[in-house]
Amino acid sequence: MNNSSALVPKYMLDFKCIGTECEDSCCIGWKVQIDKTTYTNLTNVPQKALRESFRTGIEKVDTPSRTNEQFARMKMDGTTGCCSMLDEQKLCTIQATLGERYLAPICATYPRNIFWVNNEQEISAVMSCPEAARLALLNPEKMEFTHTEAMLQKNAQSKGKVITDQPNPTFMNFFWDIRIFAIEIIQNRNYSFPHRLIIMGLFCEQLQRLINQKLESESDIKGLIENFKEMINNNAELQDYGTFPQDHEFQFITLNNIISKNLGNIGSNARFASCVQDYLDGLEEHKAATEKKDLIDFYQDGYSSYYKPFMDEHEYIFENYAVNFIYSHLFPKSESRDIFKVYIILVSHYVLLKLLLIGMSIKHKGLTTDIVLKLIQSFTKTSEHTNVYVKNIIEFLTEKQYSSMGHLSLLIKN
Fold first, then answer.
1. Most buried one in 171, 280, 339, 366, CB count within 10 A?
2. Is 238 left (phi over 0), alpha (psi -120 to 50) or beta?
3. What are the domain boundaries of the chain?
4. pLDDT digits over 240-255, tens only?
């Protein structure tokens, strides 16, 4: 495949920005870095009024840490978190007055993630964009992939490149085998989604052992994949979800602690803040419940009464979320050769979303696709665009020694 095409999930073919109709804004709630070329272009436009507004609305990075890529940043309103370039309709004045070619790379590219795998471009979308999330997550069919036109304009931001054909054998020589198998596990609808996530974890755990022992030959990696395929189809113990224990108290206390410890990292993300408040309001109802139940029992009742009935019919939402995560994070790529850590990040997203949705479902006496989409989109905006949030989660699980498959399965299963 030549460089003029890109591999994409099929939902990308239908994606386009819906502008003022969007329920959120991609220009609110995080830092927007400006490269030197963009800064120079904007602060030297012929139109005096525009030139002055750009010089006022953009600030250079402090000299010691300044690079050509991170040369300046957009000023954000301290109260609303809005970019200084937004107009009253929350549309970008740069794009409206000068066109897309004047945008900073991140603005010209978002919500797209662009990578190169060998000599082929890959494009996916970040689920912090409501419209992209709607298209990607709410399709009940299995996510499929196709080719479309590559993004090759100068201000399209590529996040990196992967070369899978390594001279010395490593697991990355089998990048596609591992990646495709991980997606096959997640899309295997013979199992419930939580069950699939645990199976993927068991596979990642064993794959990580091979990597740690430098057993990365074709027979090692492909042999493991074939062994797991056989187990998925024929191993009665693996096929039985009841094999895996559950501990509602451990699950709730651990995940609620993570949410509580990160309340200060929500920032100006009002949509996520409202979801967290709905969660807290839902749990607060246990105090007024007719039957005075322990909070853990109340939580599990909420799962059984409100969350589970909805998710039994809409498991494809989390399935699509996980497939998009695997694809857009270039799984199993890992700079530290720690692919199990990438899996932990995926699990941490799922279990925290599940926890919040259970509380929200109690408050709303059920769930809708709008409620679920709002949470996933706003959570992604906080977690994937703020390194602190995910960093705190990983550190918490590591500090408590909860990052083993045994503990993670307790967080996954209700």
1. 171
2. alpha
3. 5-161, 168-414
4. 999 999 999 999 999 9
Q: What angle is formed at CA 177 by the lines to CA 175 and CA 178, rounded to 5 degrees?
A: 65
Tell me which amino acid residue 351 is.
V
**Amino acid (1-letter code) at residue 409:** S
Please state, in angstroms and rounded to a whole number, the distance separating the CA atoms of residues 50 and 318: 44
Tokens of 105: 């790379």
Quick one: tokens of 132? 């992209």
C-alpha 314/C-alpha 353 separation (Å) is 14
Is the Cα torsion angle 345, 129, 276, 80 positive or negative in sign? positive
Q: What is the pTM of this model?
A: 0.93
> Within 13 A of 82's CA, how many CA atoms are on the CB side?
13
Q: Which parts of 110-247 fold into alpha helices (H)?
A: 130-137, 175-186, 193-212, 218-234, 236-239
- Report d(CA 387, CA 394) in Å as an integer: 11
Compute the distance between CA of residue 325 and CA of residue 319 in angstroms, rounded to an integer: 10
Alpha-carbon distance 115 to 124, whole Å?
Answer: 9
Neighbours of 78 (CB within 10 A): 8
Rounded CA-CA distance 341/63 in Å is 34
Strand 120-125, strand 5-9: pairing: parallel
> Looking at this protein, which amino acid is placed at residue 249?
E
Report d(CA 82, CA 345) in Å as an integer: 28
Bond prior to 111 in cis (omega within 30° of 0) = yes
Beta bridge partners of 266: none
In this structure, is the dihedral angle defined by the CA atoms of residues 188, 189, 193 and 198, taken in order, positive or negative?
negative
pLDDT tens string 178-198 = 999 999 999 999 999 999 999
List residues bridging with 92 in a β-sheet. 86
Could you give the 3-state DSSP secondary structure of residue 94? helix
153 contacts 199 by C-beta, under 8 angstroms: no
